[in-house]
Amino acid sequence: MIGGRGLRMKKLSNNLKGIIYILSGMFIIAFQDISFKILSTNTNLFLIFFFRSVMAVIIILLFLKFTNRPIVFKTHFPLLTLARCLLLFIGFSCFFISLSVLSYSIAITLFFASPLFVTILSKLILKENIGVRRWGAVLVGFVGIYLVMNPEFNNLNVYTLFPVFTAMAYATTVVIQHKTSDKDSLFSQTFYILIVAILLSSVVGIVLGNGQFDIYESEALQFMFRKWEISFDTSLALLIVIGFSYSIGISFIFHAYRIASPASIAPFEYILILYAMLLGWIIWRDTIDLQSMIGLTLIVGGGLYTFAREIKRKRLVSVQKPLR
Known about the structure:
By secondary structure, the chain is an all-alpha fold. The chain has helices at residues 2-39, 45-66, 78-99, 104-111, 114-124, 132-149, 161-180, 186-208, 219-225, 234-259, 262-265, 271-284, 290-313.
């Protein structure tokens, strides 16, 4: 009896620690995203990816060495791992491109539609039985996406589609993760994501890095095609912030999922939307109108209800890994 109580107390303690790690990790990740948005005015997107990924590899290797953890590069699913890495690279490229023209809070809100796409892909790929209630949550969430995007089809801001595409790409990687997590370690998967990002960014830099295509007025296109160069002022400082914040933030979030129940901590990832709204207002005085606020509420509600139904049915696809 005492042993059972002690086990429950330990589980509760780990869940509380996990929540603290999630809240902290998301706050750190918010600074990475803010730094990306600031750098979008004077630095190349893929140079940032390259710098961030190199720093992250170094930091993770040092962490593994000093904690005496094994460094494992092997993957049992090379094709699925490659597909996952490509989807994450392309998907988050789209997300950060959208940050150059959208408010941070709007981009983040649209990205958090990913649990809705996980539900759809679970039906199509994993053949999971999806009930009427979860389909209803998906429908509510997509109404929210529509409201946030506020589409005027004769004048659609195409960049509002980019975070939605990121959500779709990310949802696909969640389903892939469901198939590979039993054999591939977390750190080996992270290494592959970073190494592929370094290789792809290097290729882009070699082909496009001299700025010959930086001929457009669009801020988003300038972000992609700007010449690869670093000004040794605030830009370098922000690049270092991105490298450290990504590594530390992701480590906090992954550690939360290692020590705590995913079902208990996953909903707290939505705190990133509040961080985005707060930081966006402090730095750029961004505000959200009533229609977007209603849409945000529907997206969050649909996602949280999806989590709740998965927990009840013990089909933890959406909540088995972080949303970032």
